[in-house]
Amino acid sequence: MILEIMFPEFCTMYADSINGRYLEKSVNDIKVIRTKNTDKPYFADNDVDFIYIGAMPEIRQKLAIEKLRPYLARIRELAEKGKVILATGSAMDIFGKYIQTNEERIEGLGLFDFHVEQDLGHRRNSMFVGEFENEKIVGYQATFSKIVSHGEEAMNVVVTGHGNLNDETHEGFRRNNMMVTSLVGPLLVMNPYLTRYLLKQLGEDDSLAYEDDVVESYYYRLKQLTTEGAHIDFNNHGV
User: What is the pTM of this model?
Assistant: First the structure.
């Protein structure tokens, strides 16, 4: 399996970089490519199985878009072939039609039909529980962005936490095995069933690293977040 991690020099927020390291620990036969923004993407000229891009500072979104735009056709080709492409946190924003900030409109990659309304003066923070492929998914949201859906297939059905601005029952988007989500943190460590699902799409059936521990932690966290009266929302923080 070939895993390409995009922009590791700035896509490190909320411990998102742990996702790549966890995949590296979990798959026995894996080659990891870490592509900086000054490098040509490996996937441009080579086959890859999994592309991961984690949360980035909003000030870096325009740079990420500019670096990936020349390879849109190749990204679409890989998605059509069923390769896994996963973007988490603020990396999600760059795959929509555009990002509307307080000062400008930034044209996105347009790979999904949604747009982003971004207010850097207010951050929305919450815990999250959703449903993905008949399993629960748990995570965190810490975002300046509100996502406005235009009819794309959702990634998660919201149980608790925030969904898209005009459709609070759904969060994130997916097309085949290409998925974008507002969830941040070590998502693949926190969600062993999600990780196993993604790897199975690539024909990988190795045991997950520290599997017993991550499964136990997953169920503990899920119980905490679904208990009546659980404190979920830490919303409307001015910064």
Answer: 0.94
